[in-house]
Amino acid sequence: MAGPPRQAPPQDPPHRVVALVRPPQSTFELGCVAEVFGTRRPGLPVRYDFRVCTPHPGPVRTTAGYDMLVTAGLSALESADTVVIPGWTPADEPLAPAVRQALRRAHARGARLVSICSGAFALAQTGLLDGRRATTHWYLAASLAERYPRVEVDPAVLYIDHGDLATSAGAAAGVDLCLHLVRSDHGAAHAARIARHMVMPPHREGGQTQYAAPLPADRIDRAPAMDHSLAPLLEWVTGRLPEPVSVEDMAGRLGISARTLARRFADQLGTSPGRWLLDRRITAARTLLEETDLTVEAIALRVGLSSATNFRRRFQQALHTTPAAYRRAFRTTSGRSRKSHDTAGTNGGTTGTDAGTKRGTARGPL
């Protein structure tokens, strides 16, 4: 006689993401957040519960010329797991005491606070960014640094994630940060599937400096210069991760010295060549752990980390967990049948701008 039917294991409740908006609200930055966290897609599990709130519920004027109705007030932040400030217009607008208190209370409770573009100005007013790296739109970076000297402003990167606080560069970099947060929460494979639905890469190479307009003469010393884009080199290296590519090989590819290469990486990506290369290898390894049955030894060879021992050590240093534990946490169902069709150049992961990432060149086999 058949026993009672098995009950499905209880699922964790969706992670609640709340966007804090105010007039005039930029529709693009808000749209970036809603697209990643608030759009339901066929075939993908619902991992987030997206909501919008405003200090004064009711019609909220937008920069696109129409009003949107927001019915939730600041009390929505009390149950948020992540609070996103999708732009702050104008950037010098003072933060109302009630908003400041609500954000600080949410952070103290354990919520993750995130800003996109000029939203960093609002986040800086809470005092939570003091003594920490942050970024914003390249055009606003000098102003952010001048207004909030206790914040270490990095104008070169697409985003910076401290775990409890995260900031992104301008406009579309908000999508980069949101996809990075999904990777951190649910693994690279889930983030890649969302990016595929959005018809965009799950990870963009380089920093925002490559998009910056030439600076006027009176501002030329207030942001890093960019004489040569690293994009072709990054593409060349990403396609050769299984090979023992070294920093010297990268410099030789451009016909420059290793010191000059390091300076360009620092200016354009906010990291070192060795650290960037190691991040790419770890990113590829994460996807293979999630989506294939390959052994640790095989993955180590596919991503150019030479041995299982070196792979385990590098993985532990980067993610503070073991490859086996990561695989158990983020394994996808489809990965159980995939053994040999993955490549080490799979995109995803961070840009080397995470707050915990050291800027020094990684030693040993990369």
Number of helices: 13
Report the count of strand segments. Answer: 10
- Please state the average pLDDT score: 83
CATH topology of the largest domain: Rossmann fold
Radius of gyration from CA coordinates: 21 Å
Name the strands of the widest sheet in spatial order: 2-1-5-6-10-9
Number of domains: 2
| Strand portion | 5-15%
Q: Fraction of residues in helices?
A: 25-40%
Largest sheet: 6 strands, mixed
Tell me the structural class.
alpha/beta
Q: What's the CATH H-level superfamily name of the largest domain?
A: Class I glutamine amidotransferase (GATase) domain
Tell me what the CATH architecture of the largest domain is. 3-Layer(aba) Sandwich
The oligomeric state is single chain
**Unreliable segments of 5+ consecutive residues:** 214-227, 334-365
What is the compact description of this entry?
The protein is α/β, with parallel strands linked by helices. It has helices spanning 27-38, 97-109, 119-125, 141-147, 173-186, 188-197, 231-238, 247-254, 258-269, 273-291, 296-302, 308-319, 323-330, and strands at 15-20, 48-53, 58-61, 67-70, 82-86, 112-116, 133-134, 152-153, 159-161, 165-168.
Keywords for this structure?
2 domains; globular; 13 helices; 6-stranded mixed β-sheet; disordered C terminus; alpha/beta; two-stranded antiparallel sheet; Rossmann fold; sequence-specific DNA binding; 366 residues; Arc Repressor Mutant, subunit A
Structural features, described:
One of its GO terms (molecular function) is DNA-binding transcription factor activity. Keywords: Transcription, Transcription regulation. InterPro entries: Class_I_gatase-like, DJ-1/PfpI, Homeodomain-like_sf, HTH_AraC, INH-QAR. It comes from Streptomyces inhibens. The chain is an alpha/beta fold. The protein is 37% helix and 11% strand. It has two domains: 183 residues, Class I glutamine amidotransferase (GATase) domain (Rossmann fold, 3-Layer(aba) Sandwich); 139 residues, Orthogonal Bundle (Arc Repressor Mutant, subunit A). The strands form three sheets. It has a six-stranded mixed β-sheet, with helices on both faces. A two-stranded antiparallel sheet has the order 3-4. Strands 7-8 form a two-stranded parallel ribbon. Helix 4 links the parallel strand 7 and strand 8. The C terminus is likely disordered.
